Amino acid sequence: MKTTLLSIAIKAYTHPKHRFQNLYGMLDAEFLTQSWGQLNKQAAAGIDGISIAKYKSKLPENIQRLTQQLRNKSFRANDIKRVFIPKANGKQRPLGLPTVDDKLVQQGVSQILQNIWEQDFLPNSYGYRPNKSAHKAVHSLRLNLQFKGYGYIVEADIKGFFDNMNHDWLMRMLEQRIDDKSLLGLIKQWLKARIKSPDGCFNKPESGTPQGGVISPVLANIYLHYALDLWFEKTVKPRMKGRAMLIRYADDFVVAFQYGIDADNFYRVLPKRLNKFGLSVAPEKTHLKRFSRFHPGRKRSFQFLGFEFYWSLDANRKPIVRRYTAPKKLKAAMSEFYQWIKFNRSRPLKETMPILKRKLMGFQNYFGLPDNSRRLSRLSHYVSRSLYKWLNRRSQRRSYNWSSFTDMLGYFKIEPLKVSKRSIPVDWY
């Protein structure tokens, strides 16, 4: 009987200690064709310059060739093209661009891994998982802080997580559930694939998995499942004097404690635990804070997934946990909109206004939560003023007065940002 993803998921759920064999054989033409349907078609070309569109034009032939290479074990991971994209803080984020061949096979393998480990992952993990999202993590965190009596927060940042995952540890973790040397060897090929920098130099990584690889998210979750989540659940929590809770989205996590002594102990041992797995915390971004309804105010706030959390009072003077767009996130969004408007001011409005509207809706769909209306309004006013300024600099004559400018916004249906009515917004973060 042919192995399917559903049968794998059922087996993994009913047999928590089972180690799967013969998974490599699933990578046949039918499975890769299904995997193609799940692939991100907007991804950039890899080192061979072959785009998704070009690959698709000969898809049956490419899948047949790929299947044959996998069958006779001649498939080899290609070099990875590294590019850098600017971050809001002025730094650059490295991205690794695999070839379409590698993307397609990685998509298939990642589906296999996902269906196995999805049965093992704990509920506190929200990143890169079915029916999970950054927004659900934010919602869960707020509810727990509001009603469960937590008084201390450890906000942590893992320094260069994707670049520092230890390959030996990762392979040992994968072996907890996989007893298939061919599949494990394939994954190891991707981990060890050479990376070509923009200057033409090649580097063979000793650790990490490139951000941008299709398989990287599930590997990251598997790594932190063993290095952090299980350790917290099975070792840390039983030793606590009070309640403790960890919520994680990929490598971004916060931990809440009922008592200060528990928070302090965790804060001290966390670096040692991460160091065991080749990881370290960023000291400037890792903090222990008092966070209690009895100590309200913005000075005791913390940030998670683009939101600032702090205790305040509602209309009835009762304590409430509020969430605003984090100041750095708001400032970065303002800068991004300003630069985009300035750069595109000379293009026809029929081209730019629909794009601007989509950008604004993307921000609203993620940050349009209750309590955040002031920050949404602030960004709306800023974008309107920036647009008015740069449209009126397109020529020596003023293009718009405020009345005609408002009419133009109405024509393109660009409205002020407001609290979204969607229960699960699209992730902006």
From TrEMBL:
Origin species: Oleispira antarctica
Cited CDD domains: RT_G2_intron
Family: Belongs to the bacterial reverse transcriptase family.
Domain of life: Bacteria
Keyword Nucleotidyltransferase appears in the UniProt entry: yes
Keyword line: Nucleotidyltransferase, RNA-directed DNA polymerase, Transferase
GO terms of molecular function: RNA-directed DNA polymerase activity
Full protein name: Group II intron reverse transcriptase/maturase
